Amino acid sequence: MLTFTPTILKNLAAKPATRKYPFVKREQFAGVRGELYNDIDSCIFCGMCSRKCPTQCITVDKQAGTWVCDPFTCIYCGICADNCPAKCLHFHAEHRAPTTEREMISMQGEPPRPKKKTAKDAPEEGAKED
Question: Where are the domains of the chain?
Answer without folding.
Answer: 43-113
